[in-house]
Specification:
With about 170 residues, this protein is an alpha/beta fold. Helix content is about 40%, strand content about 20%. The protein has five helices and seven strands. The strands form two sheets. The protein has a five-stranded mixed sheet. A hairpin with a 7-residue loop joins β1 and β2 (about 50-55). The longest helix has 18 residues, at about 5-20. It is elongated and about 75 Å long.
């Protein structure tokens, strides 16, 4: 009996570990899926209007991409975002997360700008309200401003093909 309990505990830990290894770490459930995007009213990097709100993201399906100039993975995903914006005409709105204007301008001048507008989330409150764990993260919003999907980590061709493109087509 004294050997049975440790063996059962060990077997349970091995089972939990095996289950964890089979899960995709980019698929973290979000309580916001199926709900309207959280409200915000923040300044934009350039152009008019000078501020944007969540209501301005409505009217067509869009991607909302949280990024920062200090984020290595954001720089890795930038060429793919440019490709999506140019080849698929996907409206992408960037949320510059906890960054400086000078740094984000430098990043965009070096890597290119795939965004229709860049919203400045200097203090990170918008990211907190949207449940952002870390950048990059991308949200798919339908034409009514309802969050349909959340991609944690860099946007990939696989995520685009399997999750995002079908949602954008269904939301059109």
């Amino acid at each position: 009996m004294r050997f049975v309990v440790p063996i059962v505990v060990l077997a349970g830990l091995v089972a939990l570990f095996a289950i964890g290894l089979n899960r995709d770490p980019t698929l973290v459930p979000s309580p916001l899926i199926g709900k309207h995007a959280p409200a915000f009213d923040l300044p934009v990097l350039s152009g008019k209007p000078k501020r944007m709100t969540a209501m301005q993201l409505r009217g067509r399906p869009v991607l909302v991409n949280f990024f920062a100039s200090w984020c290595v993975d954001c720089k890795i995903e930038q060429p793919y975002l440019l490709q999506l914006a140019q080849q698929h005409h996907v409206p992408i709105y960037g949320i510059d997360y906890k960054d400086t204007v000078a740094a984000v301008r430098g990043m965009l001048s070096t890597l290119g700008n795939p965004y229709r507008k860049i919203i400045l989330d200097r203090d990170g409150n918008m990211g907190i309200n949207w449940g952002v764990y870390g950048v990059p993260e991308t949200f798919v919003l339908d034409a009514h401003g309802v969050i349909r999907y959340k991609q944690i980590g860099p946007l990939t061709p696989r995520a685009w093909r399997l999750h995002i493109k079908p949602l954008l087509k269904a939301s059109s």
